[in-house]
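re the bet — no i am not wrong, look at it urself. input seq straight from the record:
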Amino acid sequence: MLALLVVISLILLTDYFGESSSSPLHSVQRGIVEVLSPVQDGASTVLSPVRDVAGYFSSTFKAKSQVAQLRKENDQLRNDVSQLAYEGNQNRYYAKLLKLDNDYNLKSYGLETASVTGKNPVLWYQTVTVDKGSDAGVRAEDPVVGPGGLVGDVKTVGSSYSVISLLTSPNFSVTAEIENDAGASNSTGNSGLLQPAVGNPSTLLLNYLPSDAQVSPNDIVVTSGFQDSKQKSVRSLYPAGIPIGTVSSENPQSSVLINQQVNVTPTVDLQHLSVVQILTDPNHG
C-alpha cells in the first residue's frame, strides 16, 4: 500500500509539473484552494485568541522563570554586599586594635585576640562573652581592650570562653587620669576613680578629682596605672596610658562636692563590640 501511494504521488507530481497551468490537475488545485481558503481564514481568525492565550501563558511562564532567576541573583548579590560590609567593619576594628597596640606597646602584655560570641540585647552595657578562656592563658581580672581603648576586665573564665565585665557595668571601676592635648597629665594628682553613671549606661563618671583640677571638654581620660613606691607588688592591673574616653562635661553635682566630678564618654563603641584583646600578662609576670 505504501509503495502504491508513493508511485501514485510521483505520477501526480510528474504530471502536475509537466502540464500547463490550464491542465486538469492545476484546475483541481485552484478549486481546492478556493474552497479551503475561506475555511483557512476562518480557522485562523477563530484560533487567533487561542494563539494569543497560548503566547500569553508562554510569555508568563518565561517571565516567571526569569523573575525567579533574577531574585536568586539579587539574593546572592545582597549576601555578597552584607559579607563585604561585615568584612569592612572587621577590618576597621582590627586596624583600630593594631593602632592601639602600636601606640601603647600592648604586645608586651600578652595580647590574646578574641571574638565576641554573646551579649544580652537588653543589658548590653554589663557583660559580653568571648571565645577565649583559660586554655589561651586568660585569667580573671585580666584587662580587656577593644577598638579605640579600654573595654573592661575578665569577670569569669572557662576553658574556652570568658565573660567580660564592661566599663559601663555597675560593678566596674578603675583609677584614671586626664591628659591634655600634648598627651601628658595636665597637672600632678589629676586622677580619680572612674565608675559608670547610675541610670546612664553610655556615660562614665570620673570621681574624686582635685577641686582645682583644670578640666576641659574633649580632654582624654586614660588609665593611671598606679604603683606603690614602697611595695612594688602593689600596683594596678591596668597598664598606664590606655585610653578610656573623653570628658564630655562637668557634672553639676561637683558644685556641692569637695572633689570635682566630670562626665566621660567611652572611646569604644561597647554596644556594637565584636572583637577584643585580652592582656593576659598585664604586669609582665
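see?? The CA atoms of residues 144 and 278 lie 4 Å apart. told u. also Helices lie at 2-18, 24-104. so pay up
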